[in-house]
């Protein structure tokens, strides 16, 4: 087992001495205190869900706009025909085009972007990129709102803090909800918005406890457990 660094051990001691958090604000405040690195650490939200993603009807995926953004500049690629390209550029997309970008991704493995938005009429061409974009969670998908004719609106949402999420094969979900420089209230607002959407998307076939565990953590810090019952009250 790898030896824990002093900073991580100190953060664990801090959590042991603190009272157990009962609200998202309290958990966010503790996670912020463990962020002692020289850079602005991300604050991550991790969930374990009571679903079995091996069954298609228990797959949880979607998108949500975080009210305070992510604290990270998101690079957006829009794949569309000429009729939609000017709209995408005006909305602030970083890269806009079609054939040239499809070729760069397919032939050069070019991946200098965080989100791909495509219009429905070009998906036949974009589909060729599935084996490259799919495993990285970058493939445009109607369920996450990244296959759309509302290009400008979608670009603006992504730039202002819209994130996509998807449960992994083990029933876990991980996302960054901001930076350590955010206030505890801002982090809690973002976490609450994310959790509300995850709860809303609970599959009908999911039985028993749905939100099995919830933790917040800084990039270099230990996890802070969040009271599940409080979160359920806050997200109703």
From TrEMBL:
GO terms for molecular function: rRNA binding; structural constituent of ribosome; tRNA binding. Keywords: Repressor, Ribonucleoprotein, Ribosomal protein, RNA-binding, rRNA-binding, Translation regulation, tRNA-binding. PROSITE patterns: RIBOSOMAL_L1. GO terms for cellular component: large ribosomal subunit. SUPFAM superfamilies: Ribosomal protein L1 (SSF56808). InterPro entries: Ribosom_uL1_bac-type, Ribosomal_uL1, Ribosomal_uL1-like, Ribosomal_uL1/biogenesis, Ribosomal_uL1_3-a/b-sand, Ribosomal_uL1_CS. Pfam families: Ribosomal_L1 (PF00687). One of its GO terms (biological process) is translation. NCBIfam families: rplA_bact. Binds directly to 23S rRNA. The L1 stalk is quite mobile in the ribosome, and is involved in E site tRNA release. Protein L1 is also a translational repressor protein, it controls the translation of the L11 operon by binding to its mRNA. Part of the 50S ribosomal subunit. Belongs to the universal ribosomal protein uL1 family. This is Large ribosomal subunit protein uL1. The lineage of its organism: Bacteria, Pseudomonadati, Rhodothermota, Rhodothermia, Rhodothermales. The gene is rplA.
């Amino acid at each position: 087992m790898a030896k824990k660094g002093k900073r991580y051990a100190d953060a664990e001691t801090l959590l042991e001495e603190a009272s157990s958090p009962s609200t998202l604000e309290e958990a966010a405040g503790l996670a912020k205190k463990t962020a002692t690195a020289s850079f602005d650490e991300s604050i991550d939200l991790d969930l374990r869900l009571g679903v079995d993603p091996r069954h298609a009807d228990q797959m949880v995926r979607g998108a949500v706009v975080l009210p305070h953004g992510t604290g990270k500049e998101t690079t957006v690629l829009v794949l569309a025909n000429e009729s939609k390209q000017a709209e995408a550029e005006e909305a602030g997309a970083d890269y806009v085009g079609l054939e040239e970008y499809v070729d760069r991704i397919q032939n050069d493995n070019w991946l200098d972007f965080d989100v791909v938005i495509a219009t429905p009429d070009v998906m036949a061409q974009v589909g060729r990129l599935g084996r490259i974009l799919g495993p990285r969670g970058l493939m445009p998908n109607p369920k996450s709102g990244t296959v759309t004719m509302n290009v400008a609106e979608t670009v603006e949402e992504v730039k202002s803090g819209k994130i996509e999420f998807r449960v992994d094969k083990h029933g876990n979900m991980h996302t960054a909800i901001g930076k350590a420089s955010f206030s505890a209230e801002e982090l809690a607002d973002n976490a609450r918005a994310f959790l509300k959407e995850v709860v809303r998307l609970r599959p009908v076939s999911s039985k028993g406890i749905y939100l099995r565990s919830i933790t917040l953590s800084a990039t270099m810090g230990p996890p802070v457990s969040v009271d599940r019952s409080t979160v359920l009250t806050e997200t109703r």
